[in-house]
Here is the input.
Amino acid sequence: MSDVPETRDSLLLRAADPADHEAWEQFARAYGPVAYSVARRAGLQDADSHDVAQQVLISVSQSLHDWRRRDDGSRFRHWLFRIARNATINMLTRRPRDRATGGGLASNSEFDPSEDNLNSAIELEYRRQLFRQAAEHVRAASEESTWNAFALTMIDELSIAEAAAQLGCSEGVIYASRSRIMRRLRDAIRKLEDD
Here is the structure.
């Protein structure tokens, strides 16, 4: 994805139009992984999680044209989260024969399907998706050396000295590059949230 997907009302209006396939694909790329990840975190198997994501996208596609921002406090993502939460709870409470074979729940799951925990999981996954989108945008718009200084220290967890040695630059350059990328990430995430 070369640029950050729109999440503004304009995308919602476009995605509600059945003829605008590009807008729907952009919407599905942005929100499908959120629904899938929430279902996985809830303990569902891969196949069941894909089913939940599909159900969420189908539900949204059928009712997106009815969604309207009622006031400044109403957020599309809250409406979407309710749909994802309900689809996940429905999958968790369906009879086992209705789920994919293999037991239905992931064996390593410690997920409590209560509403508070599900809301927390949805919010966490939303934040992860925001970071991923912002990181893709910032990385594409940054010098490779600047991004590498950030990635080596913040993602790969190398020390400043190790990153400087690996990139053949001073520690000051690493600090400055890392700071610049972190500021751009904060700005990109803020823009995505405002949208």
In short: Helices lie at 9-16, 21-41, 46-63, 76-93, 115-141, 144-155, 160-167, 171-194.
